[in-house]
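Field notebook, page 342. I keep forgetting to write these up properly, so this time I am using the form the group agreed on. The chain and the ligand, S-adenosyl-L-homocysteine, are recorded exactly as supplied. Prediction of the bound pose follows.
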Amino acid sequence: MLNFFDLSFEEIAGRLSDLDTRPFRTDQVLRWVYTLGVDDFMEMTDMPRALRESLAVLWDLRPMREVERTQTVDGTVKFLHILDDGEMIESVLIPEEGHNTLCISTQTGCTMSCAFCETGREPGGRDLTSGEILAQIVYAVRYTGERLKVRNLVFMGMGEPLLNMDSLLAALEVILSERGLDFSPRRVTVSTCGWVPGIKRLAAEGPDVNLAVSLNASDDVTRSTLMPVNRKYPIDSLMEAVKAFPVKARRRITFEYVLIEGVNDTREDARRLKNILQGVPSKVNLIPCNRNYSGLKAPTQGHIRTFQEWLLEDGVLATMRKSRGQEIGAACGQLRAAVGGK
Ligand code: SAH
């Protein structure tokens, strides 16, 4: 069986037209699957039974299985899914006032080896298909009961989205299409460690979703120590690509900055950040370093606030990310679903 979510609308239409000539069938199926979240063709009651039976053996509407679900007291839910080949991924549903943010994965591991991040601890894994990316969203939509309850989508789970560009772009098409998941591009954020060719390709070929860049340091020496990708694409080249990225009016590029005690948290760091971001419509999102195997840790709450104030003093818009789901290993930098590695 084929993963339904791997198919483009044209492929769905093409296959359907072999079985039934009525042109509205495609939109009927798309609506059942993407708008209503139905996971069984037999439930698509406005279609002929014979057609439903043919589709049920052709296309898989449940391409991943949940093997574990954990939830914190504040309602953050971490889903652990097993894929067809036994690889595992995690997605995290984060409730906020009146809506949810869903954090999804694009690879089953990560090759970027950032010092502070659990996902890249043992480099490996594979790219997800576009269908596996989409299925995480559909799964969460089914869980919440309704598409509109998942308001924001962030590509901040396992993996580096811009190293899996083909799947990312194919998934984004369905995510943003009115016939698909119908997300507003303003509600979708792709986060990158700073993979410059990917930023350029997203700028040239991608839709106008938000870009987030995990900067995490204010100088090349520190950044290269924390994030090996910086040796290939140092801050200058990264910022050049970011400056060329088209940003809609009234929107900003987010710069994530994991604050690590004694590593990147001085007054001087704040000043250098300001210089790096000069002329870029930006906001800095400070993330206290979550605990994992690395042993790195966040500065005190007080110091984090001081760092934020330094940025604000320098005219840099800076917010603090409230880390959610730490106690279930669902917070930034804690996702790691490797088989047998838990
Ligand atoms: N590869 C992409 C997508 C992952 S997003 C990227 O790097 O942006 C995951 C975010 O969590 C990144 O901003 C990363 O810098 C941050 N992160 C990783 N480890 C962390 C940790 N231990 N504590 C807090 N944030 C962390």
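OBSERVATIONS:
- The chain has a mean pLDDT of 95.
- The longest helix spans residues 130-144.
FOLLOW-UP: compare against the apo run.
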